[in-house]
Specification:
It is a single chain. This protein has 10 helices and 8 strands. Helix 3 packs parallel to helix 4. By secondary structure, the chain is α/β, with parallel strands linked by helices. Strand 5, helix 5 and strand 6 form a beta-alpha-beta unit. Bound molecules: pterin-6-yl-methyl-monophosphate. The site of pterin-6-yl-methyl-monophosphate (PMM) has 15 residues, from strand 1 and strand 5.
Length: 288
Amino acid sequence: MTATLPAHGLPQAPRRGDRCLVMGILNVTPDSFSDGGRHDRLEEAVAHGLRMVSEGADYVDVGGESTRPGAGRVPVEEELRRVLPVVTELARAGVAVSIDTTRARVAQAAIAGGAALVNDVSGGLADPAMAGVLADSGLPWVLMHWRGHSRHMYDAARYDDVVAEVRQELLARADGAIAAGVAVEQLVIDPGLGFAKHPPHDLALLGSLSGIVDLGLPVLVGASRKRFLGAVLADEEGRPRQPDGREAATLATTVLAAQRGAWAVRVHDVAASADAVRVVAALHSVRP
Ligand code: PMM
């Protein structure tokens, strides 16, 4: 089964042969944009979101809390202050906005401001109220594989069989969501590359992506500039390639994800991935 999202006029989960979607990343954390005034930062963030749409983004994913390994939590009021104006402005401009949050209060406010999808890196585990917000809204909900907040996430990076365990935990998250009243058609799953995972775990998951896609729910893949790509591209002394040198590698993961039937990829550089998913779709359309 390949689930399709409800008819709300927004990007739909693909049926076989459709194009993999592209979600552009818009992090609105203090280090993401210039240190001008708040208004300058808002303008810059909105302009960046609109630029990603013009480059081919199907969704713009707005996040106000860093999930960098070791990062601490941001107070909810500060998260709201960062994301809401950007979500509202972009939604008003007709952009399909995804809100990247683990908090029900932020999700609810973003939905009221026009967000079209909730991207929850905790898969519903961080906030028990999240499922109710999604059940009421009927919007798509990305359930990412997660084993705890960023500060301690590597403590949980222990697996006997990472692919089997991630599959099983994602199914448990989906079951929990459905039990809480969320429709299966709303659900998107995500293996959570880099979250409570070391590079060999990420590579195993990406290499076995079909095993996640086979679960029958749309799959989002977030590999863009991640640590495992830095490890793959390490220099002769073993020093990892820095994030700004991981774009070509990110593009390779987009091609792979699209070929293996991912519903969407979440990327920083939209233009390159938007071209790549169209090439993969064109090849699929001529395959007998
Ligand atoms: N990765 C990050 C943040 N949000 N959301 C989903 N669904 N999947 C991901 O892999 C994911 C995410 C961290 O990456 P960033 O710091 O480059 O945004």
